[in-house]
Amino acid sequence: MTGTLYGVGLGPGATDLLTLRAARLIESATVIAYPTLAGGDSFARSIAADLIPATAREIIMDVPMSTERGPAQAAYDNGAVEIAAALDAGEDVICLCEGDPLFYGSFMYIHARLKERYTVEIVPGVTSVTACAARAALPLAARNERLTILPGPLPEDALTDEISRADSVVIMKVGRHLAKIRRVLETLGLQNQAVYIERASLPKEVCLPLAQAPEKAPYFSMILLTKGADPWL
Amino acid sequence: MTGTLYGVGLGPGATDLLTLRAARLIESATVIAYPTLAGGDSFARSIAADLIPATAREIIMDVPMSTERGPAQAAYDNGAVEIAAALDAGEDVICLCEGDPLFYGSFMYIHARLKERYTVEIVPGVTSVTACAARAALPLAARNERLTILPGPLPEDALTDEISRADSVVIMKVGRHLAKIRRVLETLGLQNQAVYIERASLPKEVCLPLAQAPEKAPYFSMILLTKGADPWL
Q: In whole angstroms, what is the distance from residue A91 CA to residue A93 CA?
């Protein structure tokens, strides 16, 4: 009997925004797996840390800092081999994923490598999108409104085009793209409707009108733009 | 001391996809509030049922079946008055919300009525979007892909325009709009890439290629369309 691969969403960062299902799976884990970036700490592991049994074996996929895909591919290739060996030995493997496993998450790379050969169960998680909306107390979408989710690294003209046509907008992965995004929103006259949020649900979270946002944004920052959604009915 | 209004996301339906925070708040609730539709059962209440203390007082907002806004507005007006009275008496009120409170949820109507006068805390929840993706084991978005979330009631030409330009698409509230959505996807030649999901995470969940979907869809059904996202890196 081979084991089951679980892709487990951990939510945006607060330790009590895990689901009951995620918590139970982690508490009974014998093997967990997660990525780290260039030898740093794992954000995913930090969210689940209090629940991980001391006896659990940990498979660490260290992804080097590089804009080239090859080194990251190799890290996921190696991780997949190690995870597959545990599954072949009949062990379940709990893959820890910040947010949701299928929403801009690295679990997708492990899933793509192993889904044909193993039973996979995915546990959805609270995304940073709804965590940021909760922090800002801003409705994301009501009734027949559309919601557009855009990665900050998109080119300036693509962002301008998308935002100009959208109802509600979430811009993810703001980080070093903050200045570009500010320019886009100023061009569209929307800068005063934008809210900047970083590290939603964590102790050092920040939620400010975009005009008051810092010059430098961390990778885990987001901009919400609701262009006049009327939640009054 | 007035009480705090909590808007608590309950996730897509499975009782173990609540967050730990939501579960703790509900277990210690003295007053809970939730909407029902035309005297029917409350889906939100059913998700949380096992956690609701027998001693909790329940404020029910019964929303009549109507396409006009007036009767629904009146139901939320009355609910807000009843919730405000509890808050004024110093009681916290836990407002139960299927999915996430700020994502196509009726909590937004209560929030709009009470946010200026009371302390509000919003607990984000797992949305049906990621629950459906988890059930279908389909990546929603990776790297610099955009994700477009569309309500099924949008007009046919608007859906066609949005979908033709999108990377990944989620169509919510499919229900009686299924035939129209099928036509749109056939026009765009995308019908074979679409997946139909109803009641994700519930015992009677359905997940099928759109071509095999039933003729009639319930309100809580969704179509996922990933146009070739490559999660391999």
A: 6
A96, A10 in Cβ contact below 8 A? yes
Q: Quick check: is A191 in a domain? A: yes
Residues from chain B that touch A112, judged by Cβ atoms under 8 A, are 231-232
Q: What is the ipTM of this complex?
A: 0.96
Please report whether residue A232 resides in a domain.
no
DSSP string computed for A26-72: HHT-SEEEEEEETT---HHHHHHGGGS-TT-EEEEEEE-S-SSHHHH
* A231 falls within a domain: no
Longest dimension (CA), chain A: 60
Q: Do B139 and A108 touch (CB under 8 A)?
A: yes
What are B139-149's pLDDT values in tens digits?
A: 999 989 999 99
Q: Are residues B35 and B48 in the same domain?
A: yes
Task: Report the predicted TM-score, pTM, of the whole model to 2 decimal places.
Answer: 0.96
Tell me how close the Cα of B193 comes to any Cα of chain A, in angstroms.
17
Quick: pLDDT tens for A85-138. 999 999 999 999 999 999 999 999 999 999 999 999 999 999 999 999 999 999
